[in-house]
From TrEMBL, chain A:
Keyword field: Membrane, Transmembrane, Transmembrane helix
InterPro entries reported for this sequence: Cyt_oxidase_maturation_cbb3
Lineage: superkingdom: Bacteria
Protein name (Swiss-Prot/TrEMBL): Cbb3-type cytochrome oxidase maturation protein
Keyword Transmembrane helix: yes
Residue ranges of the TM segments: 6-26
Entry-linked Pfam families: FixS
Organism the protein comes from: Marinomonas communis
Transmembrane as UniProt keyword: yes
TrEMBL record, chain B:
Keyword Lipoprotein found: no
Spans through the membrane: 174-197, 209-230, 242-264, 270-288, 419-440, 446-470, 747-763, 769-787
Record flagged with keyword Repressor: no
Native source species: Marinomonas communis
Pfam families, per database record: ATPase-cat_bd (PF12156), E1-E2_ATPase (PF00122), HMA (PF00403), Hydrolase (PF00702)
Family per similarity comment: Belongs to the cation transport ATPase (P-type) (TC 3.A.3) family. Type IB subfamily.
Protein name: Cu2+-exporting ATPase
Main localization category: membrane
Amino acid sequence: MESLFLLIPIAGIFVVIAILIFIWAVKGDQFDDLNREGERILFDDDETDMKQ
Amino acid sequence: MSNVCFHCGDPIPTGLDIASTLQDQRREFCCYGCQAIAEHICGADLSMYYERRDTNTAKRSSSDTSALFDLLNDDDLYNEYVYQEAQQHTIQLSISGITCSACAWLIERHLSNQCGVISIHVNASDALATLVWDPNKTTVQVLSQSLQQIGYSAHPHRPGEQDQIHKAERKKAIIRLGVAGVGMMQAMMSAIAMYAGDMQGMEDSHRQLLRWISFLFATPVVLYAGLPFYKGALRDLKNRHFTMDLPVSLGILLSYGSSVIAFYTESGHVYFDSATMFIFFLLLGRFLETLARSNQNKARHNTDLEPVIVKREGSEKVIPVHKLTSGDIAKLESGQTIPVDGILLSDFTNVDESSLTGEYQPVAKHKGDLLRAQTINVDQQIELEVTNIGQNTQAATISRITERALSEKPRVAVIADNVAHYFVLAVLITASLTYAFWSFMGEAQAYWIMVSVLVVTCPCALSLATPVALTTMTNAFKQQGFLVTRGHVIESLAQTKQIVFDKTGTLTQGKFSIVKFVNLSECYSEELLLSWISALESQSKHPIAQTFHSIPPSKVDHLQNLPSLGVTGEIDGKTLFFGNAALMLQNDISFEQQQYAEPGKLTLYLADSKKLIAVVSLCDALRPEAESVLSTLRDQGVRLSLLTGDSATSAMSILPRDWFDDYETDCLPDQKWQWIKQQPHKGIVMVGDGLNDVPALAGATTSMAMGASSDLAKLHSDAVLLSDHLETIPLVLKGAKRCRKIIKQNLFWAAGYNATLLPLAIAGLIPPWVAAIGMALSSLMVVVNASRLNKL
């Protein structure tokens, strides 16, 4: 079980990296339009369907 | 469902037949405008918009903003609004009519297919678009036209300071939420491992590792993400008025503080998971609430950019309002809002001063009189000398009317705040008494017993009870096209006893339609006569004139507005008059007035210089759903009142007296408000739309503005009926009642949980970790219970 002393802190470092990426994304305006982005992928999908 | 418009979802007037075949299906429309838009959309291969949009309705923007964009022909202004690089120009547009992401998709697709557009990005939440185009291939004027073809109107937008602050705050809120969410998950993961360890046994070194981890992740959550609560609590202490912020901060800091002590002394239990979860859920609730509220601010048009005709150095020029300086001579059309204070240079006009005085009847103004900003020039084209400019006049107007009414607005007790007030004191007193008692008894564990008491009484579930339910309800309402803009709305709606309706524009459609046409001539067809009338009215901005604008006009010369009478002009060499009975009398045209005039209908006459040619009756038609909605509301036990500025005869010709409990006619705006104030009980909902309803809207317990209301009415109401469908009102009342019930259940459960465990905790029977699990479970119960409100 000694591996826990290594693995848990490493997992912690990943979490910190994830938070930093999140902050970077927010500052880069990626969360400006919460209504929109979630659905964008659906529109793009249907469009390619229609063309085929 | 075939009797609603395919594009905008409005009911189609009976007898109207406007249809096209789109995507191999027959589609019906309520007007030619909608038909043109739908044909354009489908023609451009963008019909997916209709499949993807959230609701089957669209807000068709009626305002034509091309005059605004014509202003940008001026170089100075162009530089102000357009960011220019060598081959590409960029502008920010604020777009009205965006209701969901399908709209954003439609706009992006349509515009990027236009020649010369380099990129377009639409933000559906803020209704803002960033448009980049190649100035050699197209102009912003052309692009704004193509936006109008698909039913949206755009205004040039310059982000103000307020927007920047708002945006920065929103970003901070999202980061806080993210930090709290991730931190919470880590702290919980460690907590679950520790609970498992408590049951199965675990090595001390492992336990210590997990404590470290949860401490490290909880600390930024508590110190950074929880900051807004502490700020609120400090403000509460300063104002000596307690809101939920105080018990919330107390709960967070105490559970975190005692955990840190436990962590540091390596004894006792840590509650990092509870503290972080608490912060996350509360932040989430607040974030969703502000999100719902900011949706309301979409319609912030730049009034600075209204075009005005100004005479300078002998020539006429169109400039934006904010470029006017005192001493300028401005030319105003009839129906135009006077943008500045100024002195009348023309001989005579009537001015609607209802926005200032509440007086609905237009006031006569003569040469040399002072005209005030925000009043409306009713009659004819005038010239005025500008004396006062700027937003000062306008801002003063708005605040003057409403401050009065708002200051007397009855308040409905908000349950949570009452609870909070006493709760804080009770918790603190109990905890310190417990500590005092056990230390007096010489109990070594006295401190931990006190911590147990604090954790048990931690008002997590209690403070989540109301906001979670309100947030869920607000979102469910939004789906129905009912936008809640103030916090108290749902709770006050639940206590509705009386609904006061305005007539025009609220129960009726707020626009005239032709109900009767009598052709007295022998040689002209009805179509021809209507096209004459349309031509005569083509220059007028009077509401009556709008009725005829949809009819293709004939050619006309020597058009003239006759104040308070009508219009005159020359068609095919004939001088024609169109207006009221007084106009006919003035021209010595004799006829039997009784024969044509009907109460409640507006009768207008068309005549040449000798005799009457045609009689048109206009009437404001009732909304189709009005009757059924009123009877549903009555069944729900609501007192119904009508307050209208119209005369009794004209009101009763459309709305029968017995549909209502109170029927007040001839009300001035101020009287409407006074009448509402005199009602014996609270719980009055006012539904209105116009400028003359604004004082009443501001003064009622709860107010709803119709979606097509004037901006001022929307600004001062607590909720907006975006869909413009009255059916939403009974639905919303029912929902609000259900929401109140759920809040009560939640409060009962949370308070009951706290009250039952409290004596046990005081007696020292509950180990802190049991208290922590209980706290988490009770919060979860509250959240799950509130989620039942998702379905309206």
